[in-house]
Design the sequence.
């Protein structure tokens, strides 16, 4: 098995998914630490350019949730 | 603490009040154990032995020294016994210079020279005395008061206060001839000489006279010193012996001979030495003052006991020779020192006394207590404060103890092991060897926690936030008086406790749980971490049954006759969630009487569970549940709809428990002076639903009546509105205005970012290396200052941050802590207080999204924290100060619809001081209520309507428009312009908010011979005939009601909520008009929810026939020979039935206007059924996503008149939340168009859900768009949809988000 771990960049809606990520913490759930969150006011704010930029910065996956 | 093996902490607690733990833990006769409530279970806890155990486990010198602030005053203490040592201990802690003067060459008083070493080894005592002297206490030995010093000489030498604790060292005399002969040694002297080593050996026979502890101690000591025979002579019997029972037992065990009922008469001597003791036999006579029977000599029974040593031990007294003369210290009538019972001050000012010298010979713990009290007095005396204030004679104050639980297993009291009898007889080695670790833990665990808090103060030690301090810990309940104009009661209710019935095997088997417990099982924070398993074996269940109406709709003892109203829907929810949680296909079955999904959209939910998810719904009567201990399965026995007996086995059973009024609240209602109904709920009137029987007091939620969340929220808004109308005049009279410092303009300044990294106690710092993250932040671009905080959100830290921002001239702030969703507003306040714009702030979420979720990988969590912080700093660098727009709000309201909910809203708004325009499309106010006869409670609706209509029409604040239609709407929250066409005339009404109360109407059926046959009427039409007092009703012999006409069908898959209750009410009215009438109600599920169940029960007792028809099959209405013929399939009998009524009532659906033009005009959504869709089903039931528009009444959903009224009041209350502010303040995070770049495509205008963008109509940018900052919610949808890149979202602009993305991959 390779030790490779993907880098995930996520764009989370302030009102739902970002709140859910907070709740995961409050509930003391655990998940791998290789994810970085960018809070956006609504997934309606999402632009394809953000996704492309994230990949260009070396992200292996981009997750938009809202 | 001992149970938790925290011995050091336990000793700290003990030494807070008791300076000699190892000593008292050995010798105390423990009066405390007599009051220990464990004795009510088995035996008292061995408190004394546990204290000794604790002291033995810990080296007392290891305890942390108390911080002492030294003072100059000197205090002299006479006597180094327990009272003197204790007083010294506490006084030294207060900082006084304490000197103890001791007559003997050793310290400890009677502890040292009165208690033999086999009970209290001298090294234990010496160690603890030494520990006390560590506090700065000096002991001067061989210095006796009266001989070497006097009170006056001490005072002359600068001692400001003197404490007399000289003890009780003088013997009482036998008063018999030859008492001073050699060989007669008084008891106290014998013990003292033994302790000091002056007596090393005793030979021959020893006779001891007395029955107290000293007699026993002397006897056992004599035995150890080598006496041949030791006898105790006591003048009464064993029952009267004052010595401790266990001591007597020990003495007997060791071979001491105790002779009862004999008294000495004379010492026989030979050559000046004692050789015998002449005694006389006694018998018990009448009781004396102490209650003990007085011994009386038996005449002529004298005899001689041969003895070499005689030890009289019949009592001690205080040697008060030193007080002779003019010392100013008086004695009491027992020749002890006279003191004040509270302050222990003697008759001489500044001189205090305590211990045996004051009480006469007593137990050591009494002396310790006295010493402590004296220390308090002396300290107060030297402070010049009142000696007695707030003090009482010592007693046990606590009364309200924790209740003792039933079924506590009985545990035998721990006993200490002892040394061998051989060793006991020959040496002074300690007899009792203390408890073992295990035995002590068992003993300590027996504590019943009577006081709940054991005052260990460990919580104060661990609370780093200093929320718990010694001061806050000692807080007590306070009575606070507040002047209020009205009271809103929302104490709620309780879930029904199914353990009251044995039918369900609840508490008998773990796999039978209540619905509330099942919610916990499904919860991620529940007992199984969100894994759905059955409690008995933690295996996933394959079959779960829900049993409805547990404790509800049940008139048996202990249950409630009403429907709880919430259980059907929550059981469906639980069944659906359980299916989602299940890894295999869970078989979920709901056993019910009627499924009552009457709430908005609930019927759809029920259909989904049944048709899409395959939840089984079984109409049945469950007789009982049999658990199988072996398999953990539950056998449910029930009778199905057709009367068949059926059995089915399930892994788990969930009891859908109902809601009940709480006993506590019921008791409190009496105090509040409000009446409750026969179920102890506070609601009483349908027309004033939140009003209680006492004016000014309102009730909402379950306390009012059983109900679900949306209804409770509606109630609470209504209660606030009704209370508000009462208090309109005092609005804003208690508000304070905060002073806000001027904002510094930082535009154009280079960024000076302040980074605050929060430890959050151990929440962050326990995982993430906070110092490393803080160090890392220092090198980030733009960062001017970095700090670590223990708790960034605490008030003192906030104040400090304000100062730091000012001192370092910071113009951006990043807080690396928790989540902006909860804490951003708090830190923004800090920025405002520091005089910088609150939008120059960013949070790095290193707790909720880092330390809490990566607790097993601190290294990676630290790396992630750095990344998060770097991204936040990158964004903060680009932040700009934003401004918030404010706009005046027009203080008037447009209410659309003149039904009861619209009128209730209008009336409430008027009472709260606002102008109302009430627009009604018909020619009269009243809406559907105009056709309603009585409420389910029997209240006259027409009478109410008449008075409400009159009140509205005569109200100066309300302008009514009849025959009016809304044709055009402009504007937005705060400034609407609505055009109302009324009698051919257009009125433009300007108003701040809008309430939609446009109602709904009764469905006109298109079958069942309606409307062609006059004998077929709708529910409302029958009501109208009641209102009209139609005499033809009396002629009817048979009437049939058909339920769910037009409701709960594929075209209209909702329940109209009111029809079941209305049909029952009408049926009862028919019976009232003609008691001979046969009345049938054909139903699917009968839904008289909540307290309406009472009406249903009454209808059944009055002979109304309820028949469940098969709605899926044919229900046909025809005429035959001129008669109406209703034929249907009876679900119980499973066959066709036929009734020929003279009246057929169709309980017809409530239908909204599905193409209501208001939806378009006010930009408010409708649901699939055509009712208006509120912003949040549960939490915002009157609001829309569009600001400033609210909904109530039938326009929202079908509902009866009381719920329409309450929602009208609630909508008014919501409207006031906007109106009362006077101005509307928007967020700074809004979108802005650069018109020069706008291509006028209009996508933003059509996309925006809040109607914020619009086309500019004049000026150089005509045709371009602009965004109204008041309406903009800052979602950014327009920004993403703008093909020209003309729109920017402040606070989340492209460059800021890109900066975060670009900061992702930087290292270091």
Sequence:
């Amino acid at each position: 098995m390779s030790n490779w771990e993907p880098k995930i960049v996520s764009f989370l809606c302030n009102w739902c998914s970002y709140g859910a990520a907070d709740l995961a913490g409050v509930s003391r759930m655990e998940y791998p630490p290789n994810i970085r969150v960018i809070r956006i006011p609504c997934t309606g704010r999402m632009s394809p350019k953000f996704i492309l930029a994230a990949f260009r910065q070396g992200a292996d996956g981009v997750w938009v949730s809202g | 603490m001992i149970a938790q093996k925290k011995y050091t902490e336990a000793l700290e607690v003990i030494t807070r009040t008791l300076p000699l733990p190892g000593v008292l833990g050995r010798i105390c006769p423990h009066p405390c154990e007599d009051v220990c409530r464990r004795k009510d279970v088995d035996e008292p806890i061995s408190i004394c032995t546990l204290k000794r155990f604790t002291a033995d486990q810990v080296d007392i010198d290891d305890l942390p020294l108390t911080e002492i602030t030294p003072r100059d005053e000197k205090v002299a203490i006479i006597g180094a016994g327990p009272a003197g040592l204790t007083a010294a201990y506490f006084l030294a802690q207060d900082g006084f210079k304490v000197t103890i003067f001791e007559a003997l060459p050793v310290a400890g008083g009677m502890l040292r020279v009165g208690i033999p070493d086999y009970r209290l080894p001298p090294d234990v005592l010496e160690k603890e005395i030494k520990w006390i002297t560590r506090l700065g206490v000096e002991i001067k030995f061989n210095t006796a008061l009266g001989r070497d010093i006097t009170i006056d000489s001490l005072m002359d030498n600068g001692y400001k206060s003197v404490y007399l604790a000289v003890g009780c060292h003088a013997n009482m005399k036998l008063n018999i001839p030859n008492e001073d002969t050699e060989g007669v040694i008084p008891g106290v002297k014998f013990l003292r000489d033994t302790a000091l080593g002056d007596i090393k050996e005793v030979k021959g026979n020893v006779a001891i006279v007395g029955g107290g502890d000293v007699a026993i101690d002397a006897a056992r000591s004599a035995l150890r010193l080598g006496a041949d025979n030791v006898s105790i002579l006591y003048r009464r019997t064993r029952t009267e012996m004052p010595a401790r029972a266990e001591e007597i037992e020990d003495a007997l065990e060791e071979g001491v001979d105790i002779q009862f009922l004999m008294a000495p008469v004379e010492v026989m001597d030979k050559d000046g030495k004692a050789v015998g003791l002449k005694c006389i036999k006694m018998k018990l006579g009448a009781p004396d003052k102490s209650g003990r029977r007085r011994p009386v000599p038996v005449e002529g029974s004298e005899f001689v006991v041969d003895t070499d040593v005689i030890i009289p031990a019949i009592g001690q007294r205080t040697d008060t020779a030193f007080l002779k003369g003019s010392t100013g210290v008086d004695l009491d009538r027992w020749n002890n020192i006279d003191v004040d019972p509270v302050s222990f001050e003697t008759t001489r000012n500044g001189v205090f006394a305590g211990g045996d010298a004051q009480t006469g010979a007593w137990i050591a713990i009494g002396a310790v207590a006295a010493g402590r009290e004296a220390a308090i007095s002396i300290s107060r005396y030297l402070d010049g404060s009142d000696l007695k204030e707030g003090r009482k004679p010592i007693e046990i104050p606590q009364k309200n103890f924790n209740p003792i639980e039933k079924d506590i297993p009985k545990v035998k009291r721990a006993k200490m092991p002892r040394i061998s009898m051989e060793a006991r007889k020959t040496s002074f080695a300690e007899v009792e060897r203390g408890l073992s670790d295990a035995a002590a833990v068992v003993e300590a665990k027996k504590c019943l926690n009577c006081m709940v808090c054991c005052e260990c103060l460990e919580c104060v030690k661990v609370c780093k936030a200093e929320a718990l301090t010694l001061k806050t810990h000692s807080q007590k309940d306070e009575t606070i008086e507040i002047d209020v104009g009205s009271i809103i009661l929302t104490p709620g209710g309780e879930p029904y406790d199914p353990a009251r019935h044995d039918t369900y095997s609840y508490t008998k088997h773990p796999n039978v749980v209540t619905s509330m417990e099942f919610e916990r099982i499904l919860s991620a924070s529940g007992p199984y971490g969100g894994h759905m398993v059955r409690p008995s074996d933690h295996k996933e269940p394959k079959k779960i049954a829900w049993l409805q109406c547990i404790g509800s709709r049940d008139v048996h003892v202990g249950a409630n006759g009403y429907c709880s109203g919430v259980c059907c829907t929550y059981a469906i929810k639980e069944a659906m969630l359980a299916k989602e949680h299940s890894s295999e296909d869970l078989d979920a079955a709901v056993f019910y009487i009627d499924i009552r999904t009457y709430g908005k959209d609930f019927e759809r939910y029920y259909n989904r569970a049944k048709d899409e998810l395959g939840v089984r719904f079984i109409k049945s009567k469950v007789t009982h549940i049999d658990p199988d201990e072996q398999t953990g399965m539950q056998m449910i026995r029930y009778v199905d709809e057709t009367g068949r007996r059926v059995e089915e086995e399930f892994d788990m059973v969930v009891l859908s428990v109902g809601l009940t009024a709480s006993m506590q609240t019921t008791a409190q209602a009496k105090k509040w002076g409000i009446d409750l109904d026969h179920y102890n709920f506070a609601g009483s009137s349908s027309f004033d639903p939140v009003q209680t029987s006492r004016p000014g007091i309102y009730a909402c939620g379950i306390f009012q009546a059983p109900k679900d969340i949306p209804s409770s929220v509606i109630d609470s808004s209504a209660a606030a509105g009704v209370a508000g109308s009462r208090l309109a005049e005092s609005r804003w009279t208690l508000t304070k205005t905060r002073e806000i410092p001027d904002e510094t303009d930082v535009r154009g300044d280079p960024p000076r970012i302040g980074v605050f990294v929060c430890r959050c106690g151990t929440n962050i710092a326990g995982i993430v290396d906070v110092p490393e993250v803080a160090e890392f932040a220092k090198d980030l671009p733009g960062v001017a200052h970095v700090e670590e905080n223990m708790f960034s959100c605490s008030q003192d830290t906030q104040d400090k941050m304000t100062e730091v921002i000012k001192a370092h001239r910071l113009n951006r702030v990043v807080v690396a802590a928790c989540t902006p969703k909860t804490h951003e507003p708090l830190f923004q306040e800090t920025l405002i207080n520091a005089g910088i714009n609150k939008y120059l702030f960013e949070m790095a979420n290193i707790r909720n999204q880092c330390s809490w979720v990566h607790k097993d990988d601190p290294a990676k969590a630290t790396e992630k924290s750095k990344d998060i912080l770097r991204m936040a700093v990158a964004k903060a660098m680009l932040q700009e100060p934003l401004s918030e727009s404010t706009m005046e709000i027009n203080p008037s309201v447009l209410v659309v619809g003149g039904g009861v909910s619209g009128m209730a809203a209008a009336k409430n708004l008027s009472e709260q001081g606002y102008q109302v325009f009430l627009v009604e499309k018909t020619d009269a106010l009243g809406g559907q209520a105009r056709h309603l006869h009585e409420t389910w409670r029997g209240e006259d609706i027409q009478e109410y309507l008449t008075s409400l209509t009159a009140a509205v029409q005569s109200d100066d604040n309300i302008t009514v428009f009849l025959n009016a239609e809304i044709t055009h709407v402009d504007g937005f929250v705060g400034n609407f312009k609505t055009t109302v066409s009324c009698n051919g005339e257009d009125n433009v009404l300007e108003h701040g908010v809008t309430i939609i109360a446009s109602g709904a109407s009764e469905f006109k059926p298109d079958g069942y011979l309606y409307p062609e046959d006059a004998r077929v009427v709708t529910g409302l039409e029958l009501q109208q005939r009641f209102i009209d007092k139609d005499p033809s009703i009396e002629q009817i012999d048979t009437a049939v009601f058909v339920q769910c006409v037009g409701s709960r069908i594929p075209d209209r898959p909702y329940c109209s909520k009111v029809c079941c209750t209305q049909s029952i009410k009408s049926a009862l009215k028919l019976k009232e008009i003609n008691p001979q009438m046969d009345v049938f109600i054909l139903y699917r599920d009968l839904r008289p929810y909540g307290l309406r169940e009472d009406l249903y029960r009454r209808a059944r007792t009055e002979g109304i026939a309820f028949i469940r028809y098969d709605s899926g099959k044919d229900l046909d209405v025809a005429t035959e020979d001129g008669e109406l013929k209703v034929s249907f399939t009876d679900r119980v009998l499973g066959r066709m039935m036929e009734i020929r009524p003279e009246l057929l009532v169709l309980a017809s659906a409530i239908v909204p206007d599905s193409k209501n033009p208001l939806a378009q005009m006010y930009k408010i959504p409708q649901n699939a059924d055509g009712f208006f869709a509120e912003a949040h089903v549960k939490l915002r039931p009157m609001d829309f996503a569009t600001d400033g528009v609210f909904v109530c009444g039938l326009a929202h959903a079908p509902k009866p008149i009381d719920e329409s009224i309450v929602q009208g009041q609630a909508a008014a209350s919501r409207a006031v939340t906007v109106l009362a502010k006077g101005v509307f303040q928007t967020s700074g995070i809004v979108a802005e168009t650069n018109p020069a770049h706008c291509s006028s495509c209009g996508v933003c205008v059509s996309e925006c859900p809040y109607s914020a963008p619009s086309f500019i109509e004049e000026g150089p940018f005509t045709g371009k768009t602009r965004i109204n900052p008041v309406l903009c919610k800052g979602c950014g949808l327009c920004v993403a949809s703008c093909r020209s890149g003309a729109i920017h979202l402040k606070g989340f602009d492209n460059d800021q988000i890109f900066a975060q993305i670009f900061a992702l991959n930087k290292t270091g």
